[in-house]
Specification:
The chain has 479 residues and is α/β, with parallel strands linked by helices. Helices cover 48% and strands 8% of the residues.
């Protein structure tokens, strides 16, 4: 049951490619990690005495990649430490019959079912974490679950495994979090005031107030009024409040914004139309097409603001959120039930790119969950518009095969330098070095294939691997 990480893992079985890939990878393996987009909780670093909690707190409960796989095999979310929302209803649903498990029991479910992750990105990341971070070269199983739990618990209690110490050990140069537009950024302020040298920056995400169909939209708008000290009574005051919050985030070190939308539709409303839609929303009288029209308009507004204040704009459409309504009503957001949809970019982005896409002051980074659009639409768009850059293979495609497809579908048309390197996009802090390691190895393997086929030479490959590992992300995100 031992698991040893092969030094040539993920490289081609072709010896000529593998030898070159190994050399290229060794050139970047020890470079600092640049993490421009993710969802790690900043409170972990605001207190020098903070810990990750139990092994279940670290590996299982916050990681929807892990819980969604276990749930797909019939393991109830309560048994994985996921608590029900208050007043969630559905008390007759079978999953309500189980109490929330204690953490050792949660760990047992994880270890007993570790085989479910064979061949998956999660399996790769988890194996790397256990081996490289915790020094445990055993495959989790029912037989060793208790021993592994005790060993990980002991290490997590050590000062060497505090969030700040691991941040330093992982050689993270900068880590960006994702924060609601209404966030006061108190944890970020505490980090800065503590004197600790770790560089952790906020990212402005306004979905909760910009998307009219967001959960608790009215409460979010009230909070926006409170934190901006601008009474949001109409569309004009709404825009002023958002601009104030962007300026506040920038003053705390933010370099980017982040936007989710069901589709990449963009369109410009007249001031009269925008005001009418906003007033209907305030009164709880929104019409069926108000939310998508307003989101499309606000993406245009966010691009305008980015040109004015210099914040990089990230857009990731194409996820139908909370597909499992029972799980959403019972447990809330981010429980592994967001499912990709087919998306179209050429026509949907036309209004935004016609107005702002030629302005080099704008950096618009696009992510997609619809791989079919890469070679057909996204790579040609990114290969033309100065403002547009493509993010890395994302979410369901943050995988060896996903990366290989991305290189094949994007790079010939867009070019490497119209992409943005890698980001880990994770809530699971200890998976960060594993994810970057996969990307660097996949990049080295792809470049080695180009060298073997005499498409590029080794000098080109050495420069490109440096860019893919660090340089592209630092420049794109102004880090």
């Amino acid at each position: 049951m031992k698991t040893i990480l092969n030094p040539d893992r993920y490289f081609s079985s072709d010896a000529a490619i593998r030898d070159i890939a190994r050399e290229l990878y060794e050139n970047v393996a020890a470079l600092p990690l640049v993490c421009p987009h993710g969802h790690v909780d900043p409170r972990l670093f605001s207190d020098p005495n903070a810990t990750f909690g139990s092994p279940a707190d670290l590996f299982i409960i916050p990681d929807h990649y892990v819980t969604r796989m276990l749930y797909s095999q019939g393991i109830e979310l309560q048994r994985l430490g996921i608590r029900e929302l208050e007043n969630s209803g559905n008390t007759n649903h079978p999953i309500s019959n189980y109490p929330v498990s204690n953490h050792r029991t949660i760990w047992h479910f994880f270890c007993e079912n570790f085989h479910l992750f064979r061949g998956t990105p999660s399996g790769i990341w988890l194996t790397h974490e256990l081996s490289e971070v915790f020094g445990l070269d055993e495959k989790p199983s029912a037989a060793n679950a208790d021993r592994l739990f005790d060993l990980v618990t002991e290490k997590l209690a050590s000062p060497d495994f505090s969030p700040r110490k691991l941040f330093e050990r992982f050689n993270i140069e900068v880590l960006c979090t994702t924060d609601a537009a209404t966030d006061t950024l108190d944890y970020h302020q505490a980090i800065r005031q503590s004197g600790w040298k770790g560089r952790i920056l906020p990212t402005f995400r306004p979905d909760g107030v910009v998307n009219l169909d967001a959960p608790n939209w009215h409460a979010n708008v009230n909070k926006l009024s409170e934190v901006s000290k601008i009474d949001v009574l109409d569309y004009a005051s709404f825009i002023r409040a958002l601009e104030q919050r962007r300026a506040y985030f920038k003053s705390k070190g933010a370099t980017a914004t982040d936007h989710a939308a069901l589709t990449p539709a963009t369109a410009e409303l007249t001031p009269v139309e925008a005001e009418a839609i906003f007033q209907r929303a305030l009164k709880g009288q929104s019409e069926p097409d108000d939310a998508p029209r307003f989101t499309a308009h606000m993406l245009m507004e966010m691009a305008r603001m980015s040109i004015e204040d210099g914040l990089v704009m990230q857009l990731h459409p194409g996820s139908l959120r909370n597909h499992n309504e029972i799980i959403f009503r019972k447990f809330g957001l981010d429980k592994g039930a967001d499912i990709p949809i087919q998306t179209e970019y050429t026509r949907n982005l036309l209004p935004l790119l016609n107005k702002y896409g030629n302005d080099p002051r704008l950096t618009l980074i696009l992510f997609t969950l619809d791989e079919t659009t890469y070679s057909r639409e996204l790579a040609p768009l990114a290969g033309h518009y100065p403002a547009l850059k493509l993010g890395p293979p994302w979410w369901f495609f943050d995988s060896l095969n996903g990366m290989a497809r991305y290189f094949d579908q994007v790079m010939e048309t867009a070019g490497v330098y119209n992409t943005t390197g890698f980001n880990d996009d994770t809530r699971a802090f200890c998976s960060i070095p594993a994810r970057h390691d996969v990307w660097r190895r996949a990049s080295a393997n792809w470049l080695a294939g180009l060298v073997v086929r005499h498409i590029i030479d080794m000098e080109d490959a050495r420069g490109m691997i440096q860019e893919l590992a660090v340089g592209l992300a630092k420049r794109a995100y102004k880090l």
